[in-house]
Amino acid sequence: MAEKTFWGHLEVLRWVIVRSLAVVFGLAVALFCCKEFVFERIILNPCNENFITYRILEKMGMGFNAGHIEMININLASQLMTHLSVSFYLAVVLAFPYITAELWFFVKPALYRKECRPARVAVFAFFLQFFLGLSLAYFLIFPLTYNFLGNYQVSSRIENQISLSSYISTFIGLVFTMGLIFELPIVAYFFARIGVLKASFLRKGRKVAIVLVMIVAAFITPSTDVFTMCLVAMPLWLLYELSVYVTQKAEPKEEVIDVEKA
Question: Could you tell me what percent of the chain has a pLDDT over 90?
Fold first, then answer.
């Protein structure tokens, strides 16, 4: 097979982008048509008192009570724009495996055979970590944050009425932020492979990392409940320890010189 020129590779990449955008657009249209399912079963589901997280916490004897929070819309076109934007964001998430596969088949010909297996593992790990972060944010972090902030009052005379745009921006921000935070071990592995990051540096910084993890957990779940904060901090700490492990495995092996033979 003749080797492709630069313009040939550019043409292949163009069709990768076109196919990926077509899949995202098709999924967005389908999700837009399924408005009731998307919003009632997914986006607004954490607002329901029988949401699975609340039921589990009650069975654990946490005494958690999800209070009713009124949600309003104050802008004329806000509901339509929210419908469009949410359909697009969910389409990107659902199309993520396809887009990853497209990029993999585009990059694969440029890899040596010995590089293919590590690359496949890295792609799978990236995919898995991203969705683990999304799941943690959706089922734990966002519901707790929503109920705490939605029910917090500086005075009983002030009623909380959460706007739709505020709810959606918080939802999207937390969910996607946690998805990206969960890529920390992948980033650590990459920097370790190129020699920028050392496992010894991460091990020495454990004490500082614990403090930072607790600060991030307190920021994500601004609740006075220590158990809730620890519930969020534990996965973040495990991510740090996983980063230490993969960094140690990814570090280039130093060649040992035999003095006697030298």
Answer: 20
